[in-house]
User: Fold these one by one.
Assistant:
Number 1:
Amino acid sequence: MDVKFTNDDLAFRDEVRTFFEEQFDFDLAKRVLNDKSGDYKSAIVAWQKKLYEKGWIAPGWPVEYGGTGWTITQRYIFECERGRLGIPDAVPFGLKMVGPVIYTFGNEQQKEKFLPRILSSDDWWCQGYSEPGAGSDLASLQTSAELEGENYIVNGQKVWTTFAQFADWIFCLVRTSKEIRKQQGISFLLIDMKSPGVSVKPIITIDGKHSLNEVLFENVKVPIENLIGEQDKGWTYAKALLIHERAGIAEVADSRSNLNSLKLHAAAEISGGAPILADPVFQMRLSDVETELMALEYTELRALASMAEGGMPGPESSFLKIKGTEIRQAISELALQLVAYYGGALEGNLDPGALGHDFASKARVDYMYGRAASIYGGSNEVQRNVIAKMVLGV
């Protein structure tokens, strides 16, 4: 694997850098990054439409469905520049999750109906997988879909559904048979969130934000044409989606951006007459995280290079998920140690000009929400079981 940039690669990097710096302006950044503005969805959609108009919205999609046709190096450069400037990644549920399932397993009518609106961000999607009794053991899900004529009648509950309050559609795993092995009785349905019988209840997390929800289904009619692939075969499609989701959770570019920000603040914070960055213990911890992040970056590049040659991510997606979330949590722990007691001050209760206030607020929020990173997408304990089975043959 050659990671040296060619002249063409450097020209592409300059193009990406210029586009980001010109198009992700201050006003858009403020709207996207401040979810308390009440303008989060419209801001994200506005940014994604800029990427769509540029033809850069779906780097991972095949060209025939609207992908960029970029080389693996170009995709890497794009992510590096996005992370360097602190630009948020595209919301994954349509572009990185259900979109690939539809163009891989869906029929032509489904591709024509859904893919263009995913690319243009005219439809906002959410993911209906986890249930109160089925998280990492997803095959135990009980939300049912019974076929009546030309419709499935869906009843049940999903939980931890990110951005369901904004969603136009939800892709759901539902149980369509109890007579066979539980993994084989699951189907993959696309459900219009405006359907009668769908309701959404907010879940406010420890960081004070509203991104998660419960979604309830009460006798919801779903046309049979919204079934992806074959009935009772949804587990196959779900596994393909989870592999892509777990690989994306590595968030190497974002972790590198957060680490660089941490260094800058550690250099500015003074303790005992010297910057905290000069403290040997802090330096050692920072160095350990940076070394692990570098190793993760090369592991991700190897996985992407394999995919570029026609392969599919396998157990390496579990490696990426485990180490990526552990690094993210380690960075957030260092940030919280850096701000010390300022991390306990809630916004509005401290003079905005006080030392460390702005960074302290972000450090506290990132730390709190980051506790969930090793759980969502399949807990890290389950990912170790996946590795043991697929790599070690245990």
Number 2:
Amino acid sequence: MSVSRYPESESVLLEFKREVPKNEQIVKTIIGFCNQKGGKLILGIDDARTIVGLPEDQINQLLETLDHSIYEACYPPIIPLISTQVFGDKTVLIIAVSSGMNKPYFRKSEGIEKGTYIRVGRSTVHATPSMIEELKWQSHRIDFETLPVYNGSLDALDNQLIQNFLDNRKNQASAKVTQDVMRSYSLVVEEHSKLFPTYAGLLNFGKKPQFFLSEAMIIVSHFRGIEGRDAIATIDCEGTLLNQFHQAHHFVLSRLSKAFSIAGVIRDEKLEIPEIAFREALINLLIHRNYHIKAPSKISIYDDRLELFSPGGFSGPIEQDQLLMGLTYLRNPAICKIFRERGLVEKMGTGFINIFKSYESWGLEKPQIIEGANFVKCILPRGLSQVSLGKNQSEDDILSLFYLQNEITSQDVVNKFSISRATAQRWLNSLIEKQVIERIGRTRNLRYRRIVKS
């Protein structure tokens, strides 16, 4: 006889308990659901989704008292919908709540600072002060990006950057920079008869965005090996979001390996990972991160992977198996609109689809998306070690460096491929013997240059 199992799995919207937990744990979970997108706590199901049920007398007692105890323990008050469901000879208890309209919800006995809980993945965790503040904005339908920056003036916005955007919008006619146009894009907001720039305005078109949001930047680091300890090179990508995109995109692609073959005068070059995957991951990092959190975004390059770290969790109840369904929740709709009209975003919700499909089409290891307590991390496996590129790959690797610079040193080869100096020298000597490259200078000034044959 097969064991009956519940048809759904635990998620940000669903949690199972085999037995009835203490009242305070039930309250914390229900508060977490209310502060997010709602959800259900089901008692009588174990972690393996096996339906074990609850005793009838225990269910009757909970039906009589649980809704009142939850109501009394929470502020603002929460009124759950409590019901039972029968599976054969087993009965489970379901406690359901919708997303709250008066966030943040918290336990009265702990107060708002210690008693506010949220759902992160399949867990209920304490909300940080910045999360609590964001919950307050959500209850008033306010996005952080559209808040006024009181210590900024309209002079902090670069009108020429705005005009360039308006002249080059995708599928849009050109327009002049006016206050009405800036309002329509949430670049400015009026308060007490005075116009202030918004965070969205400064991030997209500010002269010095980091003066107002010092951590609104991307730190990109290339590490030796597979752990983040020995940095080969690091760059701080600052300025507007568009500038950060171009800086990070160029730096990362310059650090990745390329394989190429030459037939006549035609050079066929292939990056070790799908460029569209990194591009989509980088755009997602820029348009969906939580800019209220005072921490930079980070991109780490390791020998076997890229890691893109974005402050703030998903802005909606998204599970990993839903990423390929095109579901998306916008934390920064104004920023998303500007990126879309720039042509950097084709269609909302397709970013992760493009990432996973491009990796699948190349036959590479599947990317990973990890949601933590207050961050999202996208891991893109590097493909160089997974794809056979021919017996002369080491030579091709070195030659690929000459498409980035005219001359190289042995240290460039060591740094790029995390190999010993002896191995780098052996690769270089092999190319010299084949008269593909030549030495320039001596000792400390020794460099290598590709031989151009007529």
Number 3:
Amino acid sequence: MKIVVLDGHTLNPDDLSWQGFEELGEVEVYPRTAVDQLIERSKDAEVLLINKIKLFQPEIEQLPKLKYIGLCATGYDNVDREFARKKGIPVTNIPAYGTASVAQHAFALLLELTNRVGIHNKSVHELEWVRSEDFSYFKAPLIELQNKVMGILGYGAIGKEVAKIAEAFGMEALVHSQHAKTIGHGRLVALDELMEKTDVLSIHASLNERTNSLIDKGALSKMKSSALIINTSRGAIINDYDLAEALNNGRIAGAGLDVLSKEPPSADNPLLTAKNCIITPHISWVSRESRQRLMDIAVENLKAFLQGEQKNVVN
């Protein structure tokens, strides 16, 4: 069986092993694949493993040998699942592999906004403390999380973990979910109540027609001017321009973002220059432990397919 990995660098920049797949077939790994290289590299593949490569009807129609599409990610909006289904090609994804890492990163962003470790570390290394007349100084207001309200948009595995951590910080957790009827931590609320009462909004929803640009000027106008926004989910859930305007006008106090609506972003994305906006390059999932879990689950998904079983099939 010919197994082709089209964009393997992000998952495995040479610190993991492809051995699990090599035991299942002939493996060909490409770190990155440009649009004009996709068909040539995939034409003999029975199995394609992809992360962010787009596989829609025009591409799938040109791959007659293709029997299986394995997403090395949780999201699957980059594949035409319905057309693949009609062609008898299962599409699998990797659920819940990065729960701990993504939740941890959400709080890393939040703590940078509240405790400003980065700018204080920089000032010390620039000898500002050496020159100080006082034993202690601060470069920006610091914020205590205890008794603050953590608003959680989306209550999948990561949202649940964030709610649990928030409560450990002494925060009250409010949750808005399209699907959850009961929750283990916090209280379920309507979207308007979430926006109005939240001190920290942490986004963990999937991207769909309802959530696309959900956090726009109207939603932001309902929030406290002291509120902070954290997004480790999908960038397009937030309207970049509306959030940048709210930050620059002091309508929202700060944002910590691991995702943007377009990745890599355009140089003119207004969030790159917005006030009090911390941005990391979509790294909440990339701890080695998280990527190893992803690799292991991807191998098990393919093993199940080869044994005539279905595991994590999304079409």
Number 4:
Amino acid sequence: MSDFARHLAGLIRADGPLRLDRFMGLANAHYYATRDPLGAAGDFTTAPEVSQLFGEMIGLALVDHWERSGAPSRIRLVELGPGRGTLMADLLRAARVRPAFGAAAHVTLVETSPALRARQAAALAGTERLDWAEAFETVAADAPLYLVANEFFDALPIRQFVRSHGRWHERFVGIGADGAFGFTLSPALGPAEGAGGDGIVEVNEPARAVAAAIGAWLNRTGGLALAIDYGHARSAPGDTLQAVRAHRFADPLAEPGEADLTAHVDFEALARAAGATAHGPAAQGDWLRALGIDARAAALARARPDRAETLASGLARLTDPAEMGTLFKAMALTGPGGPLPAGFGS
């Protein structure tokens, strides 16, 4: 057992089982603060690391919306969970087609990990008006918002409510007789009214709070927020808690702080919490193709024949239904009266 796991075990022995969201929040805070989890040597790979095409398409989509919104001379360009800074670097490079967009943008990266902040600073060296924030709520809402959140909401801690024998209970994490972490249930919270069998309902309170803050900003100033993540378009019951370590699924409770703990994003709940105009969610593959990713990949392959195979492989991974194309989804949020974001229909 690691020092961090012993710390969690000490909390449980002192105060009783931890509510699942607290366990997940503590574990992920330790995990992200102590490593760069991305890439072949890490635990998982995100879309920006798969291909430059991903960030470029997002950059062009933001520029398109900014132009059709009157090209405001000052905007806040915010990324939640910016990884190594790869997406923002690709986004800004593509946005050079309209230099005034870059000149208008004050870039803020919402990141708590010192290791990842260092990687982001290196990737974005030379970027003017660049800063960091510990939380989205601390970013000054002083200009139209252009925001990207790629694989951000899935890592926020969830609560799980279990319906068993007609009663609702909440899931906690305790320590079993063998000394290992294990799930336990709270005393009954109340009767489960209506029809339906046993099951689990997940609630992501931090995700809803961030979505509400994003929506409030968009409703005040206008702009565009893009959330890209894996999850379901409509709220539905089910246990989606998972852990990934060394690019393989792992037991979420086995080694807390040593694996990435996530849960599927409930896009319907996010849209409801935001209170802004929601577009989508659309399957990631369909959305990227609507943005023109095939044409961009072909153009890059013609310019760099030596990279054609790499570009084709990245394109397939991003868009193929058997890869990231269907499970991952994109949703846009806009303020009242804003133009329809590119990629979300006519």
